[in-house]
Amino acid sequence: MLSTPAAGGRFRRGGLPWRLRPRSCLASPPSSSGGGGEPEKARPLLAERYRDGVVKRYISDGNSKLQFRLEKHESPVNAVEDENADSLIPQAIWDFVLPAGFPGSVSVDYLEYMLLQFPTNVTGWICHVLVTSSLLKAVGVGSFTGTSAAASAAAIRWVSKDGIGAFGRLLIGGRFGALFDDDPKKWRMYADIIGSAGSIFELMTPLYPGYFLPLASLGNLAKAIARGFKDPSFRVIQNHFAESGNLGEVAAKEEVWEVGAQLLGLSTGVLIMDTAGVKSSYLTLALTWLSVRLLHLWLRYQSLSVLKFRTINLKRGRILVRSHVAQHTVPGYVACNEEESILTWERFLRPQISFGVPMERMLGGDESSDMVDRLLKLYKNERYILFFEQFGSREPTFLVTFKESATSMSVLRSLWQAHWLHKNQLRQEEVFPWLEESLVALENGFTDFLEQMCSAGWDQNLIILKVPKEPVLVLEHLDQEV
Questions:
Q1: CB within 8 Å of 422: residues ≥ 6 apart
Q2: What residue stretches are annotated with the Protein root UVB sensitive/RUS domain (predicted)?
Q3: Fewer CB within a 10 Å sphere, N or C end of the chain?
């Protein structure tokens, strides 16, 4: 067990403390131990559980002051950790190479297939290296009859460039695999933007031939990262197209379209390269590439804009609740997708909402356990707790933390409440009556919101609002002694 910090201490994760200014608008609740009665006994209020097994307990010390206790347990959050507790492979590697929720999130034959697929791909890339050397010899770099050192060296440099670039795909697939189901349109667009940046490095190689390997490697790295974004995003898009379960046929026909475009593009590119201006002037070549690339990005954006998803992600969920809070209507999926901004990041949307924040950040420097009591009682019927922080004249940032039983519907309810609070700005010093009013509005209006969603053609089973993995609030018995 870790040592207990002193009362009023700050909980650090990763060496960085939360530093927040106290809220001037927060009226201090009356102390429950006042009135001259006997002081209350120390009691646990709640606990926050993290994926690494750390549990942070919030304890009232009997004088309405908070104490924090950190404990280290075996993490129960992910069932894989229990199954692989005795494995020689670190848990971080399991999380990197296997889908979240494995094995329950995939079919029973997934792991066996991947274990056989891996050496299959290894042998394929060995053949690729050998064939690359032969191709370079065929175009005059070395020969089979004379010295082959030049061809071998060139082949090593060429495949090294590919190998460095492959790290980009490895990073994206292992670290960011959970992103693509939520917003495939955004990540498919960013894939093309990153790929364009990679092409700039490759375009610079004639200017600096001595730096061919680093420039080409950077270009390949960026293009590999782009492919890491592109492939999973487009698979989600293909799955969206296959409404009849005909994913294989949709993918095959997409290949027909893509190969046809490839042949036409290669032919047009050869014709452009054969023109006198492009052959003789690097500047003309660069400007031609820039013009075509900008046209390519514009066309990509237009193609993604026509997609009409029926799933409810965070962006579309915001559009739905904002419309219902403001106008008591819910747009259909066509209008909602047309309003959705492809390139906008969540942090730039209004109101600003932070999900999965520690309770200590919500307290904002308030050391009173009464504050925690009031929040727990206020949200006793919800699977989340929502508060806010506000600095000066800036708009408030709504903070949401989730209980262990939270679901996608809990995230949607917190979105609705945050948008109601944003629309009905605080006009008084008392914060808790304002929050109580928002919860009453949520209770009265959310049922109508769901009914209108159904009428507008949305399916509640297609809500993909993910609950943050940590911290998880575990409520304690308020009358239990420490």
A1: 350, 351, 395, 396, 398
A2: 88-326
A3: N
- Domain range spanning residue 146? 109-306
Of the candidates 1, 6, 4, 8, the one whose C-alpha atom is nearest the C-alpha of residue 366 is 8
Q: Are residues 448 and 388 in the same domain?
A: yes
The answer to whether position 18 is within a domain reads no
Phi, psi of 46 (to 5 degrees): -160, 170
Cis? peptide before 209, omega within 30° of 0 = no
Average pLDDT over residues 202-211: 85
Q: Which pTM was predicted?
A: 0.73
In a domain, 327, yes or no: yes
Name the pairing type of β-strands 66-72 and 352-355: unpaired
Q: Render pLDDT for 321-333 as a digit per residue (tens, 0 to 9).
A: 999 999 999 999 9
Number of domains in the chain: 2
On the question of pLDDT at 17 being above 50, the answer is no
- Is residue 17 situated within a structural domain? no
Distance CA 364, CA 22 (A): 5
Last residue of a domain, one of 285, 306, 327: 306
End-to-end alpha carbon distance in the chain: 15
Query: In this structure, is residue 74 part of a structural domain?
Result: no
Residue 268 and residue 148 share a domain: yes
Helix (H, G, I), strand (E, B) or coil at 68: strand
- pLDDT tens, 373-414? 888 899 999 999 999 887 656 788 899 999 988 999 999 999
Last residue of a domain, one of 260, 275, 306: 306
